[in-house]
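Co-fold these.
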Amino acid sequence: MGRVLLVIRLALRDLRRRRAETALLMLTIVAATTTLTLGLVLRDAAAEPYQSTRAATRGPDVVAVSGRPAGLERLAGVSGVTGHSGPYPVLAGRVEASGRAADVQIQGRDATIAAVDQPRVRHGRWIGEGGVVLEAAFAAWLKVGAGDTVSLNGRPFTVAGVAVTAASPPHPRASCVVAAGCVHGAVPAGRDLPATLLRDPGLAWLTRADVRALAPDPGSLSYVMNLKLAHPDQAQAFADRHGGPGSHGGPGGADGAVSLQTWQGILADATELARDSQILLMTGAWLLGLLAVAGLSVLVGGRLADQSRRIGLLKAVGATPGLVAAVLLAGYLLPAVVASAAGLVIGTLTAPLLTEPSAGLVGAAGAAPPGWSTVALVTAAALGVAAVAATVPAVRGARSSTVSALADAPRPPRRTGGLIAFSARLPVPLLLALRLAARRPGRAVLGVAGVAVTVSGLYVLLVLHAFLDGRPGAEAYTAAQAGVLRHVLLVWTVILLCLAAVNALVLTWAMVLDNRHASALARALGATPREMTLALAAAQVLPALAGAVLGVFPGGWALFTAITVVTGGDGGSAPLPGPGRLLVLVGATVLAVAALTTVPAGLGARRPLTTTL
Amino acid sequence: MSLAAPPPVLSARGQRKEYGTGEGLVRAVDGVDLDVGAGETVAITGPSGCGKSTLLHLLGGLDRPSGGEVRLNGRRIDDLGEKALARVRRTEVAYVFQSFHLLEELTAVENVELPALLAGRSPRSARRRALDLLDRLGLAGRARHLPSALSGGQRQRVAVARALSNEPLAVLADEPTGNLDSAATADVLRLFAELRDAGQTLVIVTHDPRVAAAADRAFSMRDGVLAGESGPAGPACGRLAGAEG
Ligand SMILES: Nc1ncnc2c1ncn2[C@@H]1O[C@H](COP(=O)(O)OP(=O)(O)OP(=O)(O)O)[C@@H](O)[C@H]1O
Ligand SMILES: [Mg+2]
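Predicted complex below.
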């Protein structure tokens, strides 16, 4: 017990002694674990959400819509149909909730579970007298949940629950199941559409009795029936055989004609948006992961030299190799545990922001808390990093002799003769900056790589933003979908920039610590604090400039091409940013790095000289 | 050498430096008055921890006093800003440290020319002066060596050459022979004797009685206070000269 306390006390002392470093270490682990949490949540979300929804809700193979129930009832007996539910009455209406209003298709269902299409309730309960259930993505868009009140055609209803279904793509792509017809997306200018058409309608379920009570007259109702087929693969052939003229997604006519929608058609609509945003998110997660690894390796590497001296000290006063290893491990584990918990919480809180577009499907993680496997994996990863970071110096320290560990100077700096000669011609801050950067080429490379990764991401974001802005409501996305994608891009940008900022700080601080002695010496020889600050900042800014240029080309260009290839999209249809924009991007990056690094650089350059020399 | 006191290059009045507060208060330097004339060599000796290094740091503007004033060529430097102090360190005083403090990744000549580059000299003239200095200090053949390839005595001679790079008014040396064996010590002592003969103003903190004996004046320091000025050490020059031969 006493030994455990001693280990913890020694570790805490060491952490307190280097507060700034500990804070940066924790910040980096938080960033890394947040990224990992997001990545895992997204992996779950990417696991074919429509397919899992379809399996979980006994989704229909064909959805039949008609203005009259009779034509639908006939379909139930057709050969090849193995099960059905309905016909259910559907009313075209309007929903208002917390300031938002939208068209809605209200389906009358039974309180009992149907044979085909069993919407899965995610929050709250299934319909009952006076209680409405909303399609999950629609509810998310309306910003309402179970227990809230909405008005349907002017009458108040309590939201009993929120559910997902495979019978329709999620909002804003819900299939049209009313005879009046629907339009999705922006209406081309100059086209007059009938006022009765529903625009981007959502989907809601009520009891049959409530739907009938809401309908002004029975003739205003449409009907929908869900069919299971013996051969789901041949749903399209079935639809061609039995559907009316308007069977391709259009609504059934009021005259009793039947229109049929196949599950493959619903799948295509449901996954289009989700797939695009998931590709974006996974790409983002990878970029973030790379940045986090770069930041961590700089921190851990920076501490190695310092730690071998500490190991020597502990051994010199009689600590066993086991105790030394325990102290080192505790020094990493304590911050790692705290930081990974914070990362899990932040990741869990931000995940819904990213998965919102597919909230209407079961497979999407949505607001569900991360599973134990995610928690375990993230914690294990953080502890693993901590263990590796502690093990390398511990093993080294145990092997090396106490004397040599005590004498162990920090890694000797590199000599780059050409650069030193060249820098002699430059103004003092640049002279010092080049020499500082050249002392640790590996770290400079990490700096270049980190900025390149960030700028590649920003380049792709620029292209995608231009793409979304350039064609409002064009063929690819509706306005609402474009909004969702823009939202995803925004979250992506914010996390990317945060992590990049942390990395810039870590790199500068590592450089400041590593060059404490050299910069104190330069000041003793007559360099001013201002020149030293400029030099330390410039030593980051020069790699940043290289990184920014590389990040635009080939980085960003290659990343965008890769994304285009993966999505199978048409890269040529997105306008690439012009040279003006790219210059601004590079310039802004360099300025941001300069601004970020000036603070730690200034702190480093103003340390009292005599304590360092 | 004339004994008529030349105007002081370095002048300290009531120098104080305190660390900590209350119980932990340490008076590292406690009211020191000192004048160092042009071309004069002053040695400061004394037991460990009595404030010698601290005083030297105050004299050259490497650290700020808690009280008292320091004048360099008649101009106060203790109240200067960091930037102005940097300029003072660049051109008017230079330090030589016990542990050399050479930059590991720079060759001898690159180390020596660094202060000149910092002072804005052209690379060409900085390099020429550095090679001259190394030549003068008997290191011409070692100019392109890294510090790791030099002996302790050679490293300290490089450090002295670096200190001379901008022709400072005064060179302040803190135990320049503290890390050296006796042969290397003799080497460095000879160098200081030459500097003194060339009229370089020197303040040397040392444990070595030979250094103290060779100085124009030697003080011993105790508990932050300068004591026991031993007067002009005329004969010591001879002794040092003897050691040279
Ligand atoms: N940064 C500091 N904080 C607190 N006390 C200090 C600090 N620097 C020096 N001291 C104290 O000031 C006193 C004088 O220190 P200084 O280094 O000047 O001694 P010194 O005479 O050079 O000793 P040595 O011969 O061992 O080099 C010492 O008691 C030391 O403990
Ligand atoms: Mg000392």
